Input
Amino acid sequence: MDMIVCIKQIPDPETPASAFKVDEAAKKVIPAQGTQPVVSPFDLQAAEAALRVKEQLGSGTIHVLSVGPAGAAQAIKQVLAMGADDGFLISGPGLDDPDAYATAQVIAAAAKKIGNVDAIFMGRQAADWDEGVVPMGVAELLGWPQVTVAKAVTAADGRLRVERVLQDGFETVEVITPAVVTISNELGDPRYPKLQQIMMAGRKPLAQWTAADLGLDAGQLQSRMELERLYVPVVESQVEVIEGESPAEMAANLARRLREARII
Amino acid sequence: MDLAPKGSKARRPDARQVAEILGPLVTIALVIGILYGIGSVAHSQHAQREPFWGITGGWAVYLFFAAVVAFLLYVPARRARLWRLGRGFRIGNVKERIRNVQQAFEQRKVVRDAYAGFFHLCLYGSFIILTLVTLILAFDDEIIHPMTGHRFLEGNRYLVFKLVGDVGGLMGLLGIAMLAYPRWFRRRSRVRLDTRWEDHALPLLYGAILVTGFLAQGLRIGATELPEGHAAWSHWAPVGWLIGEALTRAGSSIDLMTTLHAVVWWVHMPLAFVLLSMIVWTKFGHVLLAPTNAFFKTLDPYGRLSYPLNLMDEQAVADVTSFGVGRVQDFTWKQLFELDVCVRCGRCTANCPANIAGQPLSPMAIIQDLKTHLNRVGHGLLDARHGGTEEPGPLDMVGGAIREESLWACRTCGACVTECPVYIEHIPTIVDMRRYLVLDQAQVPETAQQALMNIEQRGHPWRGTALQRTSWMEGMEVPEYTGEQEYLLWVGCTGALVDRNVPVTRAVVRLLREAGVSFGVLAAGETCNGDPARRLGNEYLFQVLAAQNVETFKAVGVRKVITGCPHCFNVFRNEYPEFGAQFEVIHHSQLLQRLVSEGKLQPKRGMQGGVTFHDSCYLGRHNGEYAAPREVLEAIPGVQLVEMPRNRSKGYCCGAGGGNIWLEEKQGRRVNHVRAEEAAATGAAVVATACPFCIQMFEDGIPAVQPDETRRMKVMDIAELLEAAVVAEPSAARQS
Output
């Protein structure tokens, strides 16, 4: 089975809140000093899901694909070290910060160019903007079925058996291939790479494509979404200590105070 | 599971098997010798030859001697084939190695346990004395006398010789009695951890040799010296004289005593050779192996965990198929040799913090299990080297003979290595197998994996911290290191990113300022130095970080570094030199001690109550610094220093070492609870330490053993205590 794993390099979601700053005028996030971008965690789990399918079948190819700045090559190497076979970095004009629609266009075009793909695995959403719409766009553009928020994926007679996470339980579905599957954190931790694999990762093929290589023009990459305002919400909290001689009196004072505040 | 390789009919027998066959054969031969000797007694009553008084066929001694020597040479030579399955090992500085052997002969480690050390000294002294006595006697009889016609052992010299021999015998009996008491009558001996027949046979055998020796002496004295009127000579062999006197008074005839003497002698002499032959097939071999192992002991600094390869050199690792140690042949031959040195005394295990807390680790069992594994797979491997059967899979060792959870439970605290009287180095062996799990198998416990991945991605192990590298400086002016200042203050991940440790970092900075020390920090330029990665087995990550940090240090021209963390201290001091680092390192306890002794810091405000000091393993055992932090505490007016029973080189790990701060303790008690209990039992108001990990472990452990918050002991770094005594407004107030 030939699979594509899509990954996105994002600002570290574990950056301490105190270090998170935005430039409101430029409507951009200011990268925190000393923190390196990381692979969106759901995407690593998508890679893990694909690797498990490959291990289950004992054969197959896993392509890692990322749309974004040239630095995303590092992110691709990380997944190659986990055991993927080759990488595709699609970067260049118009692709440093594409919106969801443009990203879906690029991924769909790349999947066609790679050819013979049976499944595309993606994280349920990127952990920076948390929009979670690219997978739908890709499935729509390719005309493939999609299964979202999966916690387990296995291959079964040329199909994929996918366990989905629902709000009140789980559901198992079977989907024909080719298909798009998005993976949720319930899948479990991505594997820790072996040293041999880390060393081999540098030697695995990594293709660099531009939008033009995929036959996409600037118009197709035009952002369809306009960012109106970007700001860090101000959270205010006030603390008031309720006094009293005895616990009973404190409770009475608390109740009086809450009534004054029209909370009860 | 049968690990023995199949279809190896033509296999050459291994040394151990040879020993197991030859050992009993030698014993049987000696027993036949005894019977022959006793049979010959009947005809020997009138023989009066001096060297073997009353003995016919005494020449058999030399036959036995030759047989035993041949045996002593042959079996280790066979056994060495198994040791040599291991990788190469550099001998290097022989002079220093000989000094280590000298230490072994001085029994420095053996006496670390007073009781066992004393009885061992008795046995050791007795064995050496009696061996020498016997050799001198043989030399005198067979070489000096025939060649010169005179005896060395004559007159006063002979009398002193008798006395020394008797003292040697008595020492041996005292040693055996002291050994026997806990082992057989009290059942509290450490040997109970893994008792085998030889643990009973060896002391019984040596006891029998001593008793028959005294009996033979007594019988000879009773039959010769006493009736011949030389009682004054006999007094120089008091035990023999008492026996001779007693037998004579009981009415034994000279003839009877002569006959009995021959019988006893024919038991005594072969038993002595049985004991000698046991050197090669029982743990008695330690008399030769322990000093040899002391010779091979690492010459590296104690706290260094070396790795033979530069993993960043792609050429060097291109052909490497396996990283770490997953198979016996991946160990060095020294590590394999060491397995045969272990005497199962149990000191390592009895001092192991994980074992004491009931966790699944016994350093002794690791060594013994590896030995069993080597015995099982060794011959197959030897055959394979000669084109024979297939090698057993690597998982048979790690995860098979050795449980993974045992490897992870190790704190690398060094208690086992420090206590081992035969100089076994357990830590490198354990970490080598961890390296295999991490680098080769990618089998890492989840929590450790998170810490490692965090180091990889974010340069520190504290996933989810709300602090940044510079958060601790808030409201303080801390100069950035430019190369102009004398010291670089290395804050470390924990000192910067863990809430509890921030006040310690601030205290150190305030004290340095107060003393006028010229220093600066790298601030956001710091990254993990790789210590947790190395201890957790990710050698690759360690090497990447070490190379990176050494570059940073060179770029800014660092010459002297102050660390607040003993782990950073150890890695800089002992491991970075291998990566080309050239700078001095000092731990804050050492610098503060110096500043106090020079009068640059004057502790004025006193404090009430006792303080107990907990030694960090990486400051204490691994780097030998026990005095400086205690001197800092003693300089504070009013401080009453109380020691916990386990202190200094016998200190007990807080539980965090070896990356265990990032591992879950799934079995037994928690190590930090055990230690917190010991600290609480001192009755001190404060447990002081000089390590950010120890502080965290106590902050977690003390509430568990002292639930009453109002009467709970405090956990403080020595810098915090000194700051309170020196600086007007301590920064600890910030904690609110």
Summary: Chain A has a mean pLDDT of 94. Chain A has two domains: 2-221, 234-264.
